[in-house]
Amino acid sequence: MKTAQQVVRSLREESKAAQRNPRELFGYANFGPTFPRLNRAKGGIQPKEYGVLASQPKTGKSMLVTQVLPSLAMQALEEGLGRTVDVVTLEMTEEAFLRRAAAIMAQIRDPFDIRRGYLSKAEVEAYQGALETLSRLPIRFLAPATSLTEEQALMYGNSTIGIKEVRSFVTKNTFIWFLDHIGLLSDLATSDLRLGLVKLYKELQYLAKTTASGIVITHLNRTANGKLPNISQLSESSEGGKAADCIYLLSRPFSEKRDELTEAQAASLKMGEPAYLLIASRDGVSDLFPLWWNAQGAFFTELPEGAPIKLPGEDKKKKK
To answer: What's the burial of 130, exposed, middle or buried (CB within 10 Å: 0-12/13-18/19+)?
Structure first.
């Protein structure tokens, strides 16, 4: 318990520190130079913050994490004190995860070309340079021995890692942690799904509040049908939505309605497409960020402020 006097003392110190060092980003970390508007809106990632990142399967949640991972790890390195960025990846191995991060850093157009051996000399040099940079960063992994197939990744509890291993993995030296994704934790294989998810959300919230800021990745429990997602679509939304300090809802509405697109429209998605990140946080921040999904390089970039929001089928509605 704390008295009002104790809380006021803490708030005064916070105000004095802010005045000594005025800055737009008042959190202890940020998502890197690719997302300046998101960083400004949130003031950065806050201490002991618990976030939930959700979208439909195969929308790019894991790719978004691999994209911001090097920047966050660089910030952890600069802070010193043995701080680490910890990644619990239940769907893929640590090699697959870092290969994606290196491909984005090297701006390799088709990440699959790395394993095919189709890289140009310049791409090989860029990729090897990215791997060298990543090798120096304080990133730790808790991962399965083999990657899951698409079908296996959709089965609840289908991993060898449970919440007990996650709690042991994240320590006081953790700068920020990611869990990709909650539905694969092995605890769900032997428990009631709804009650199991509620329990896991609460335990992960406690981990963030008592140990280090973290972001949990999960699926939306029903399709948005080409519309922007909302919190009610979170898997076990009653607890997933309540527990989070900040919710990030990622959407690529054209891909989500791929069956309704013309052949020409579907072909155009091979180069890239609009995407959206909707955020809602307990401190009142709520905003929609138009993004662009670069399908060739498998990464997101922010679009300029005021970029139009277009969803599948809107042209047809206007004609009618």
So the answer is: buried
Q: Which residues contact 137 (CB under 8 A, 6 or more apart)?
A: 70, 73, 74, 76, 77, 85
245 within 8 A of 273, measured Cβ to Cβ: no
Cα 72 to Cα 77: distance, rounded to the nearest angstrom: 9
Hey, what amino acid is at 203?
Answer: E
Helix 121-135 and helix 61-79, axial crossing angle in degrees, nearest 10:
50
* CA dihedral sign of residues 270, 38, 281, 163: positive
Whole-prediction pTM: 0.87
- Provide CB contacts within 8 A for 280, sequence distance 6+: 231, 246, 247, 249, 286
The CATH code of domain 46-248 reads: 3.40.50.300
Lowest-pLDDT choice from 22-26, 48-52, 132-136, 288-292: 22-26
H or E element at residue 251: strand 246-251
Query: Quick one: pLDDT at residue 165?
Result: 97
pLDDT tens profile 42-70: 888 989 999 999 988 888 899 999 999 99
Least confident of 4-8, 94-98, 162-166, 179-183: 4-8
In the chain, domain spans = 46-248
The 8 Å CB, 24+ separation contacts for 92-96 are 92/62, 92/143, 92/144, 92/147, 92/148, 93/143, 93/144, 93/145, 93/146, 93/147, 94/141, 94/143, 96/147
The whole-number pLDDT of residue 267 equals 79
> 315 pLDDT exceeds 70?
no
